[in-house]
Amino acid sequence: MLKVPQLDQVTYEQIKQRAVSRIPALTGEWTDFNSHDPGITVLELYAWLTDMLDYYMDATGDAHVEKYLKLLGIRPKTARPASGYVVLEGAGDGVIPDGTVLLAGDIPFETKGEYRVETNRFCAFLREEDGELSDLTAFAGVDGDYAEMFRAGTWRSQAAYFGFAKPLQQGDALYLCVEQNEKRNPFSEPICLAELKWQIFTENEWTDIEVEDDTCGFLRSGFVRPALAGDMQPLRPGPDLPEAYYIRAVLKENAYDCSPRLGRAFVNPLPVEQRRTICREGERLEGLRIGVTDGCAGQELLFDYPDAWKFSLLICGADGETAVYRYREDLEEAGYEEQVFTYDRSRQMIRFGDGIHGAVPRQKQEIYVTGLVTSLCGAGNIQAGELRTFENGESFPYRIHNPLAIENGRSRESLREMLGRLEQ
Fold first, then answer.
1. Cα torsion 378, 78, 314, 101: sign
2. What are the φ/ψ torsions at residue 199 (nearest 5 degrees)?
3. Is 389 exposed, middle or buried (0-12, 13-18, 19+ CB in 10 A)?
4. From the centroid of its chain, how far is CA 385?
């Protein structure tokens, strides 16, 4: 094992006594070594300064620890805004533009991408076992309940039927809320404990289709994206069963450790993210002018906008020429020509490159913050049902709510959390 050198090995008194002990060897005229002597006072000052330098050279600050962790392949997890889905209810189709603001109390969320409203709803859930159908619609998602989809540990023929008020269209995505099994270890890589065959009902017969299944065979909540093969037709599977447009999953191989349970299902829920866009990239707002370049390496500027999450810098010359500098977590990874900057959130300080790591902007150019987006990140998570209104409610004739909690936002990983990952 490498021996870690200790640079701060001597105390202030030891440094002072070493210096005083050398005086007789240098001059015989200096005989008063008491503290009132001006020469001793100056010597004590330099002894104190030397002691401080030794201390700081030997100290390991947070910045140093992060560099050491980087050598071990551990980088801080960056801040991330909470994101999830909302469901729209109301009559009529329409278009909701990208960036439409929704509110959960005072917390803003924005829609991700343009959204075409084509209202369709999940209206029936059936379970088939050995050819016998049971209507479990009253349990699927009602008052937070879940309906059992398949029975684990049996080789009986089983299928789960999902019924909708309208036929599904090509490109539709179904979001299925599946009960999380707390006994099962969390997983990130796709796994599957069952083999499923997906079918839709078309013209008096069941037709096999391919699906993209993010739920890993109903092990977690996620999207199921069917590739439709033909037009769906309405079906009433039995005299006392609801008529609907059905898609079903037939269980071909059963290796479930416990029975999967379905809550609610939604057609094309609207994706949202906890953020507020102050200005688009390339826009120049006078209120976001933060200074002028000085042409020096490593120039720093203060930027203390509340909850700033993501932004770039617009550099404007007197000749009308502009350049966009983009954020880089670590300037040491940038080339000398890259137009980048970094931002120390603890000090609220922007810093440009030094000409070796990141380009140095030419002097006397105005600096504007552009593409500014704010977010509460880890403080922007909300519970189910809290996202209820459009900021401009009169513009859209729809009711909205988030059926699931939106709780995947996080702040930048702290040093303590990084060290915890190292210990794991």
1. negative
2. -145, 155
3. middle
4. 21
Task: Return left, alpha or beta for 322; rule: phi > 0 is left, psi -120 to 50 is alpha, else beta.
Answer: beta
CB 143 within 8 A of CB 254: no
What whole-number distance in Å separates Cα of residue 272 and Cα of residue 103?
A: 11
Describe the chain by its helix, strand, coil percentages, rounded to 5.
15, 35, 50
Look up residue 382 and give its two tokens.
């909300």
From the list 408, 397, 402, the residue with the least C-alpha distance to 386 is 402
| Rounded Cα distance, 117 and 343, in Å | 39
Q: How far apart are CA 27 and CA 29, in angstroms?
A: 6
Rounded Cα distance, 386 and 396, in Å: 18
For residue 422, give the nearest of 71, 80, 186 by alpha carbon.
71
Closest CA to 388 of 106, 104, 70: 104
pTM score of the predicted model: 0.77
pLDDT tens digits, one per residue of 203-219: 879 999 999 999 999 99
DSSP class of residue 185? P
Residue % of the chain over a pLDDT of 90: 59
The Cα–Cα gap between 121 and 123 comes to 6
In this predicted structure, the answer to whether residue 2 has a pLDDT above a threshold of 60 is no
371, amino acid identity = G
Q: How many Cα neighbours within 13 Å face the side chain of 188?
A: 0
The span from the CA of 125 to the CA of 136, in Å, is 6
What are the beta bridge partners of residue 401?
87
- Distance from the Cα of residue 376 to its chain's centroid: 11
